[in-house]
Design brief:
CATH class of the largest domain: Alpha Beta
Number of strands: 18
Largest sheet: 8 strands, mixed
Number of domains: 2
Strand order of the largest sheet: 6-5-7-1-8-9-2-10
Radius of gyration: 22 Å
Oligomer: single chain
Strand content: 15-25%
CATH topology of the largest domain: Alkaline Phosphatase, subunit A
CATH architecture of the largest domain: 3-Layer(aba) Sandwich
Order of helices and strands: HEHEEHHEHEEHEHHEHEEEHHEEEEHEEE
């Protein structure tokens, strides 16, 4: 890795590089926020792509000054794999980081599981070049505050010079509800970081990664009171959700205000996205967190910065893995990127009003989720090519085909109507998984489907079960 990193730094320096200030980057990663979880209409042609009760005016300001991606996808319907993909530009399948280590049905001991899910890693591989290490090697100050959830190694070892440590869901205090304390704490630390780097004349990359916050207990009393003052017929759950999202938006507004105060807003790329869809329902899509359906994978993506048309909406399909090469391009790092990068830069899309393509090594992309989680179909993989999406169900071998442009709710399975497309996409999926040596679910030798009595969601029972 060091050799490649030196090559990147050398190439950057050889380009003559400092004719104008290098841009800064602020990346806000929401936790469990789906496509329609904010008050920003993510698709200019779909009114249902914004929440009916959440108000996020500062995110609306960001969208008005920048570009929304209507068709942006998480690398996984779970947080650890998606975060790893953002950091590295590589898929969870390649990194073998496809789950979060909850120990569900990986051993074959579950009485109803037809398959044994693979033991996924939750540790970002040592020596992996991250966006932090890439930019740090090119002279950037780097920081990661908030939820890390990519292992127990300090993020400093992964290129983030300032950080909160290798935090998980409980935050540095290891509590049930890190928000709102950690929300405003990481925001304050982020603003201090930006101020110090600006004073030193040094470009920076700052990532603020939120913790889960979907209930009223995670919100400030002021936010709860504000939402209740809106009136209407909101349920208690909706009030809690709106309150925590109002806190998130207020904290985000503090960052935008600080950029203005420092005089660096026009030279800073600001990104808001999320790690996966909301738990539960994500209208108008099927499924949510923990599923390979659109509701688990389609997430908001908004970016503002130099050369980006205000108020634009792009319908170019993009994914978490694209963030790494895009930032590298925007930072004008001209050296070779690490081997195995699966994402492609959409920098040209940003400068072209949202039109264009993402130049990935392969035109299709894959979401590999070989685990039992929140979907009744069990372990599955999805492959996207153009407007088509194929889902492979590992328990049954079923193949489902959807045109997600015409049918974003995945209600009409086209597999019988388009058998040639099913065959093509299935072959592409098999080839991809073999190429990255993806971990696969295996038959459970203890599974016994011969006795239909006492069956569970996945059918059958374990041999010799009492």
């Amino acid at each position: 890795m060091k050799t490649k990193l030196m090559a990147v730094v050398f190439a950057f320096g050889a380009a003559g590089a400092l004719a104008q200030p290098r841009p800064n980057f602020v990346v806000i990663l929401g936790e469990g926020h789906g496509w329609s979880s904010t008050s920003v209409q993510m698709d200019d042609a779909a009114a249902e792509s914004s929440s009916t009760f959440v108000r996020t005016p500062n995110l609306e300001t960001l969208a008005k000054g920048g570009m929304r991606f209507a068709d942006f996808y998480a690398a996984s319907p779970r947080c650890t794999p998606s975060r790893a993909a953002i950091f590295t530009g590589k898929s969870p399948a390649q990194l073998h980081m496809t789950f979060v280590g909850e120990g569900k049905k990986e051993t074959g001991s579950d009485v109803n599981a037809r398959l044994i899910a693979p033991m996924a890693s939750t540790e970002l591989p040592a020596g992996e070049m991250t966006i932090g290490s890439l930019l740090k090697g090119a002279g950037y100050a780097t920081a990661h505050f908030g939820k890390w959830h990519c292992g127990r190694v300090n993020p400093r070892e992964q290129g983030f010079g300032e950080n909160d440590g290798a935090t998980n869901n409980g935050g540095p205090d290891d509590v049930d509800n890190p928000h709102p304390k950690q929300l405003y704490g990481m925001t304050e630390r982020g603003m201090d970081f930006m101020a110090r780097q600006t004073k030193a004349g040094k470009p920076f990359y700052l990532q603020l990664s939120h913790y889960a916050s979907r209930h009223g207990g995670d919100a400030t009393p002021d936010a709860m009171a504000k939402v209740k003052s809106w009136g209407g017929n909101l349920s208690e759950q909706e009030i809690g959700t709106a309150a925590v999202d109002l806190d998130l938006d207020i904290a985000f507004g503090m960052i935008l205000k600080k950029l203005d105060e420092l005089g660096i807003a026009t030279n800073t790329f600001v990104i808001f996205t999320a790690d996966h869809g909301t738990p539960g329902k994500n209208p108008p899509f099927a499924g949510g967190k923990g599923t390979a359906s659109e509701g688990g994978l389609r997430v908001p993506f908004i970016i503002r910065g130099p050369g980006i048309a205000a108020g634009a909406c792009s319908h170019v399909r993009a994914i978490h893995e694209d963030i790494f090469p895009t930032i590298a391009s925007l930072a004008k790092i001209s050296g070779p990127l690490p081997n195995g990068i699966e994402g492609g830069s959409f920098a040209d899309v940003l400068s072209n009003g949202g039109k264009g393509t993402v130049q990935r090594p392969s035109e299709e992309f894959v979401v590999h989720f070989p685990h039992y989680d929140k979907d009744a179909i069990g372990p599955a993989s999805a492959i996207y090519l153009g407007n088509l999406k194929l889902i492979r169900v590992y328990e049954t071998g079923a193949l489902k085909l959807f045109n997600i442009s015409k049918d974003p709710g995945e209600r009409r399975n086209l597999a019988l109507e388009l058998p040639d497309k099913v065959k093509e996409l299935d072959q592409r999926l098999t080839g991809y998984l073999a190429a990255v040596n993806a971990q696969m679910p295996k038959p459970n030798p203890n599974f016994d489907a011969s006795n239909p009595a006492d069956t569970g969601k996945h059918g059958g029972k374990r041999k010799n079960q009492k």
